[in-house]
Amino acid sequence: MGAGRIGDCNAGPARGQSEPGGGTLDAGAQPGSFAGMNEAEVREFFDGWATYEAILDHEAMHHPAFFAAAGAAVARDLGARPLTVLDLGCGSARHAARLLTGRPATAYTGYDLSTTALAAAREALTAAGIDPVLHAADLRQGLAGPPDSVDLILCSYALHHLETAGKGVALAAARRRLRPGGRMLLIDLAREADETREVTTEAYASWVERDWTFLPAAAHREIRAHVRAHDFPEDDATLLRLARETGWAKPELLARERWHRGWWLRPGD
Ligand SMILES: C[S@@+](CC[C@H](N)C(=O)[O-])C[C@H]1O[C@@H](n2cnc3c(N)ncnc32)[C@H](O)[C@@H]1O
To answer: Residue 77's Cα: distance from chain center in Å?
Structure first.
């Protein structure tokens, strides 16, 4: 059951809002470059949102397992208090909305390049009782916002679009944005240490083609082209090293499924 295109909203910060103090980034201040990433291509791929909705519907990237574990971690570490949440590459925020349902006075800000996804995010978050601030903008703008101002950062399947150094810069910037006691949920693709990026992305695309039979052949072709051009999964040791070098304690592995990982990060001492 794909959701289909749900219409477009205006480019620029949704509802004309900008995050307080967030500002914009000049080229020199951008935390990390997107190796091989053509922003317009990524936007176009995700604006065809029906494919990704079908992936979510079929739980093909294991969101329910990761977000169930995240829910327990949120309850354990952040309790029931109101949270300021920053969602980087929020997409349709389907699982973020579920994670935050029932929390009092959640202040949620999401960044995504796809206006189609943001329209769906607004619907899902509003239904969860949240009045979101959504930016049709690069997630690096969210990372460049004011320090010590966020309780929970969500980053689900977006960081792998950055090359290695860019992931480090992004993790450092995320660490800077967190309030003391804050946490980050990082869900992403990973590769085996002894595999090159090319081997992993080809294996991933082949697995998708074999297992995601709910998608038409054209979608498989698009996915293979997308992972070849835009996906840069790290091996676990590299991700742990980057986290250590950027001020995080050793990340807690919430769950893993094939190439998919859910990590829970807390600031280091
Ligand atoms: C695989 S989807 C994940 C969406 C959502 N976080 C989830 O887990 O369901 C990746 C999302 O990241 C967005 N994205 C990719 N690169 C981005 C960037 N540089 N800035 C903002 N959003 C980006 C895409 O538009 C897409 O919505």
So the answer is: 21
240's CB contacts (< 8 A; 6+ apart) are 250, 251
Ligand 1 center to residue 144 CA distance, Å? 17
Q: Which atom of ligand 1 is nearest to the CA of 187?
A: 8
pTM: 0.86
CATH code that applies to domain 39-265 = 3.40.50.150
The 10 Å Cβ neighbour count of residue 78 is: 15
pLDDT tens by residue, 182-200: 999 999 999 999 999 999 9
Extract the tokens encoding 179.
């309030």
Query: Do residues 18 and 67 make contact, with C-beta atoms less than 8 angstroms apart?
Result: no
Ligand 1 pocket (Cβ < 6 Å) reads: 42, 46, 89-91, 111-114, 117, 138-139, 156-158, 161
Q: Which atom of ligand 1 is nearest to the CA of 94?
A: 9
